Automatic annotation (TrEMBL):
UniProt GO MF annotations: S-adenosylmethionine-dependent methyltransferase activity
InterPro entries tied to this protein: Methyltransf_11 (IPR013216), SAM-dependent_MTases_sf (IPR029063)
UniProtKB keywords: Methyltransferase, Transferase
CDD domains listed in its UniProt record: AdoMet_MTases
Pfam family, one: Methyltransf_11
Coiled-coil regions listed in the entry: none
Organism from which the protein derives: Bacillus cereus
Protein name: Class I SAM-dependent methyltransferase
Keyword match Manganese: no
């Protein structure tokens, strides 16, 4: 907002849930930029469906996402330069924790990240109407 004010731009910010864009009418936006943020939602299909709904016909979606291979390796081994496949996808940060540590992790307000498959990322966009 500070930069927009400095440069004389009109900007409206809305804090909400990217998987529920109900505050916006259908075909509201000319462009939607979704940076590498959908790793924070459990069901990425909800995001793609909502973006498709609020994006105008012939609108532009710019989306980035993390390669899911990032999450398959054992973190401790990777720090030693060893790529040891330990985790599967889809998965979440919580899946990697011992069961007795899950609630403490949630209570600590750390981010929960979800490793979505490329199929969910790419085919999910196609299924939502992006071609």
């Amino acid at each position: 907002e500070k930069v927009a004010k400095r440069d004389g731009l009109t900007l409206k910010t809305v804090q909400g849930d990217m998987s529920d864009l109900g505050d916006f009418e259908d075909e509201y936006f000319d462009i939607v930029v979704n940076p590498v943020s959908n790793l924070f939602v459990k069901d990425v299909h909800l995001v793609w469906n909502e973006v498709s709904r609020v994006l105008k016909n012939k609108g532009v979606l710019i989306a980035g996402f993390t390669n899911p291979l990032l999450w398959i390796f054992d973190d401790n081994q990777e720090q030693k330069g060893i790529l040891d496949v330990k985790h599967s996808i889809p998965s979440s940060t919580l899946d990697y924790l011992p069961e007795d540590e899950v609630q403490d992790y949630i209570d600590s307000n750390q981010t929960i990240e979800y490793a979505h498959t490329l199929e969910d990322q790419i085919q999910g966009q196609i299924d939502a109407g992006f071609a």
